[in-house]
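pasting for ref
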Amino acid sequence: MLVAIPAALAALVHVYIFVIESLRFTDPATMRTFGVRSHEDAEIMRPWAFNQGFYNLFLAIVTVVGLVLHATDHQEAGTALVASATASMLAAAVVLIASDRSKARAASVQGLFPMLTLLALVTVGW
């Protein structure tokens, strides 16, 4: 449970990121979240955001597949998928904050549950 709960939460956060980036990017609330100043700018950025959102969705899917595999007697494969997906999520959060310190809150949201997952894997195992 020490791994499964933060891993599942990491997947949920990344599904949410997919939704706002790929499906709701031109919504005024989403534009404010990303600091997009105009609808015209949002339309220019929309293809990039759409693609980026799918990266987040794919990481969430890999995490969930890993959780299912681990729960269905394929522990090694499940652990490998959860570890690699959450490590990628955490790495992306580190890159985000390293590239722009003003994105610390977003990086924290993106990276907290992946970090907790990896810490649990390293310290106590599954």
